[in-house]
């Protein structure tokens, strides 16, 4: 279970990435953020952002049209 969920369905890049970055900046280390996207390029872009900032991508799960990305803040 994530500590915080960010639903950016209906948004296209760069908004999911920018909103994910902002959400992670507001979180404490060790907390988890679930990002839900429905725009396929966002899956890789959000994952790349999380890793480039030193965070850990715990899971990427596709459920129908939705993609859920679980990130642990470092």
Report on the structure:
By secondary structure, the chain is of the alpha+beta class. The protein has a single domain (4-72), classed as 2-Layer Sandwich (Translation Initiation Factor IF3), CATH 3.30.110.40. Helices cover 32% and strands 34% of the residues. It has helices spanning 15-25, 40-52, and strands at 4-7, 32-37, 56-63, 66-72. It has a four-stranded mixed beta sheet with strand order 1-2-4-3, covered by helices on one side. Helix 1 packs parallel to helix 2 (40-52). It starts with a strand and ends with a strand. The model has no long low-confidence stretch (mean pLDDT 97).
Quick overview:
With 74 residues, the protein is α+β, with helices and mostly antiparallel strands. 32% of the residues lie in helices and 34% in strands.
Topology:
Layout: E1 4-7, H1 15-25, E2 32-37, H2 40-52, E3 56-63, E4 66-72
Parallel strand pairs: 1-2
Antiparallel strand pairs: 2-4, 3-4
N- to C-terminal distance: 17 Å
State the helical fraction. 25-40%
CATH class: Alpha Beta
Major sheet:
4 strands, mixed
Give short descriptive properties of this protein.
74 residues; alpha+beta; Translation Initiation Factor IF3; 4 strands; 32% helix
């Amino acid at each position: 279970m994530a500590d915080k969920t960010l639903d950016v369905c209906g948004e296209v890049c760069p908004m999911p990435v920018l909103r994910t970055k902002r959400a992670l900046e507001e979180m404490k280390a060790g907390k988890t953020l679930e990002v839900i996207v429905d725009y396929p390029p966002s899956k890789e872009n959000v994952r790349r952002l999380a890793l480039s900032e030193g965070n850990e991508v715990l899971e990427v799960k596709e459920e129908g049209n939705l993609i859920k990305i679980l990130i642990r803040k470092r």
